[in-house]
Amino acid sequence: MDGLIVLLIVIGVIARISKSNKKKAAEAARRQEQAEKIPYSREEWDAYLKAEGIPARPKAKAKPAAAVPTAPAKPVKAQAKPAAQPVKAAAAPIPATPSAPGTGSIRMDPNQGVEGETVAEHSMHRQRAAQAEAQAQIEQEALQALRAANLQALRNAVVMKEILDKPVALRPRRFG
User: Fold this and answer.
1) Cβ-based neighbour number of residue 45 at 10 Å
2) Which end of the chain is more exposed for a tag (fewer CB within 10 A), N or C?
3) Which residues contact 165 (CB under 8 A, 6 or more apart)?
4) pTM, rounded to two decimals
5) Is 101 exposed, middle or buried, given 0-12, 13-18 or 19+ CB atoms closer than 10 A?
């Protein structure tokens, strides 16, 4: 009786495997047929979309040609300027004091920088930037040295610790 049950189970497993293999083969054949159906030219593709009932994409409209600027045939002559009207009341310029340049003056204080800071402030900023750059360089070198530590360097460090540390007999015992 037990042999009959085992035989039925084996037959069921084989039937299931063959059924899944048939499904896989049918799916592969269907994919192959679909791959062969796909048209490759624009006309064939449009006909295929029309046959399937899918609306075709709109055709691209032709772009208007850009207007090419043409050079004038004759050079343009400079026209004479009309006579200037006399100014009734001329504005008096604002006098500049020695400590501060006048408003609207092109002349600037020689101690005043273009960025709105004095030359001394600018040199301090440059000095701080140089110090920050030097500090970043030192940190980068330290990081590089840490990355360069390899297995041999670590072994040497352990050996040096054993040499320089207390003897093992004199060390305190550590229990969990």
Assistant:
1) 14
2) C
3) 171
4) 0.26
5) middle
